[in-house]
Amino acid sequence: MSERRILVTGGTGFIGRALCTRLLAEGWGVDVLTRDAERARKLLPESVGVVESAHELTAPPHGMVGLAGENLGVKRWNEARKREFVASRVRTTEHLVEYAAACGSDAPRVLVNGSAVGYYGARGDDEVDEGEPPGDEYQSELCRQWEAAAIAARDHGVRVCLIRPGAVLDAGGGPLQSMLPAFRFGMGAWLGNGRQWLPWIHRMDLVRAILFLIENQDCSGPYNTVAPHAVTHRTFSKALGRALRRPVWAGMPAPVVRLMFGEMAEMLLTGQRVVPRRLQEAGFQFRFPDLDAALAEIVDGG
After folding, report:
1. CA quadruple 38, 43, 46, 49: dihedral positive or negative?
2. Which of 175, 214, 248, 266 could be stapled to 241 by a disulfide with Cβ–Cβ 3.0 to 4.6 Å?
């Protein structure tokens, strides 16, 4: 086993690139499992290994991080897109589990696998921790299937941590990539009535949380990887306006949101007041627990 190497899926994505950089800085070796090796080599640091199958590795890594998945926020949802969402998440995770099984007693010690707060569905104003059951919306079922695929790694002696991020904030990707242009021009708006909860996390804290879960052997099961204080969409929009020194006066009516986004609109118009109870109980310290400070760092730094 390679004691200081981590295998990452989704390593060329918004979260994955930052994770690879952080792992290297912390002294870990990194291999990225990808369907497009040529593209990955252009996007990732030269020291990152690139493989198209986990079986290409010369030795099993210490751990695996599963972040692969088609972006739910790109293009309108239809049946073909939904099949892509499932295949890109579930099948890729199954590949990691199959690899762990093939390693036998030398299997990776830990799998930190992606999911999302969408697991809980629309929950109104109720505070939601990791003990709550899944919702019954499409995104809830998608997360449930994704997590079930990862949990199967336990049968092969792998410690499994399931991360459930909210909106991941940073420059160069995530929800802010599409929001910033409108807000910079003073045309920003909250969605619907703006009272829906929006769990969020700075990308730096999400990457730190993943590393924390890799390194802490007592951690397993689901973790809400969100900042300690969820906000409503209206509050979030006004905070982003303050960071950019631009006014935010109104919301985009729900019928307009539904017209623009189709079925995906219901995910945008509802939310969950999610809290990171298990992560904090494990001793994780957020660098950006406050939304205004997080947005200021992103806007000023970007």
Report:
1. negative
2. 248
